Amino acid sequence: MAKQILLKNIDVPGLADFQVYRKLGGYTAAEKALKTLTPDQVTDEVKKSGLKGRGGAGFPTGMKWSFIDKQSEKAKYLVCNYDESEPGTFKDRHIGQLNPHQLIEGMILGSYALGANTAYIYIRGELFYVLKIIEKAIQEAYKNGFLGENILGSGYSLDLYCHPGAGAYICGEETALLESLEGKRGNPRIKPPFPAIVGLYGSPTVVNNVETIATLPWIVNNGFEAYAAIGIGNSKGTKLISACGHINKPGIYEIELGLPVEEFIYSDEYCGGIRNGNKLKAVVAGGSSVPILPASLILKTAAGEPRLMSYESLADGGFQTGTMLGSGGFIVMDHTTCIVKNLLTFARFYRHESCGQCSPCREGTSWMEKILTRIENGQGTMKDIDLLVDIAKHVEGNTICPLGDAAAWPVASAIRHFREEFEEHVKLQKCPF
Amino acid sequence: MQEKITIREFNRETLDLVNQIIKRYPMGRQKSALLPVLHIAQSENSGWLSPEMMDYVASLLDIQPVEVYEVASFYSMFNLKPVGNCVIEVCQTGPCWLNGAEKLLAHFESRLGIKPGETTPDGKFTLKTVECLAACGNAPVIQVGTEYHENLTTTKADELLDQWRAEDKISHTNPYL
Predict the structure, then answer these.
(1) What is the tens place of the pLDDT at every residue in B38-75?
(2) For A182, which of B31, B137, B147 is closest by C-beta distance?
(3) Is B12-72 a CATH 3.30.70 domain?
(4) Closest CB to A288 among B26, B36, B94
(5) Which ipTM was obtained for this model?
(6) Closest CA to B133 of A249, A101, A138, A242
(7) Which of A375, A384, B52, B142 is the most exposed place for a label (fewest CB within 10 A)?
């Protein structure tokens, strides 16, 4: 059942070429939509499919679209969030590099549904070589009449452009991304108003993740029922999981939501188990921001049920004993890993990436890095551990955008589940690893 | 290294590219082209953005110089000080750290005789640490210009260094070309 929507043809040589993609049934969803469906019908399909945003927040895509102010006389915009930067997440790079036309076809479908005649793909600046592959594919799409004026004689027109970022994780936050696209610093905006009402250039705008958009052609081709039939509970469809760390087979896997975590980690079809036959210690299941879980809680819930790769199962137990599916950045650590040091690299990351607008985040991320450095170097005190918990508590929920939460959760969860390891650093006055 | 205080204005071909990029945004929204144009400007100015170069970009986009400075100083890919011909950026975030990024960085430091943020006396190499490059499955990872080098070992790092030395590698090429 896996590898059916996003990675189905990923190994076909030359897939980035228009003709190859077309021969495999590419652009038939765009034809179907523009020739036989109204924009509202496309929105309806997506709504009923149960597709959720694949960037991390998991907000229902069709619902996000329905907030757009269609009565507005202003231009509407669809913007693809290709600012993939969450540590552990490397799935979107793959799509643009190997299958750019599926992304472009998804952009056509989404733009048509929203009534947008201009759309942008905002891609992190480090991925310029991917940007060039996508730009070449866009040129092919123009040449073959799938972009530009009056597409397929439907009367609908769309211009699509790539826009590079320049190194800022915060631009993955949708309002920071829009600021950045307007040529400004990536400072998140205060919401409301949400982008659906006041977005790019003050116009109604939807921002969707790469994977979300690349899923649209399949839904339009096969219908919402077929999509909703895949997955489990409210976790419909498939999800790309980028797995890394101490596993035998790091890589990008398309899984049907609901796959047991244990199977994902140990089966040869996926991660292939822990390297060198080592013992599993901990997993960060959905990108660096989500709570870390020890082996016992990632394989089974606190109630002893097998943990599944789904929005609901990973969140089972709340933050006390659960975590989040997030972006699907699955970071695996074996028993040789120092949890404090790993956390310190995350803390440094968030300090580096804080935009500096909100003082709890600007100051808090830097304090957390400082204190963790102290503990890791054997100069910490027991009080420092409680101080970290306290700072994390005061950063969380007190910032304009979720970067504050993203910085606080890893700290709070690492201490919640691995407190003895922090204490050991203090007692030994050095890192035990 | 010698600081350059004069800038070379863009040639016709580069100006055409800039104008083509400006047209991607609505009329009056040419400021949107700032990040792409700064990438080009940096490549045309030995890999860094001098105040003079930023003023020139402001004039091209018909915006105030300060609008360029505040943006250039926000994004980590823009260098506001001179750099070496070949800038080596080593990822240090969690997944790369789990797979030996510290050892790799130490290896670059000892081979080049410099610390992160420094440039070799001959001006050939600058070493930088960077945060997550989104290639965690192939950790550890480094970036040089628009190239990613993945699953890097110290042996492979040595091969790359020898190659870059031999060819006088320049990492700040126009990313659009």
Answers:
(1) 999 999 999 999 999 999 999 999 999 999 999 999 99
(2) B31
(3) no
(4) B94
(5) 0.95
(6) A242
(7) B52
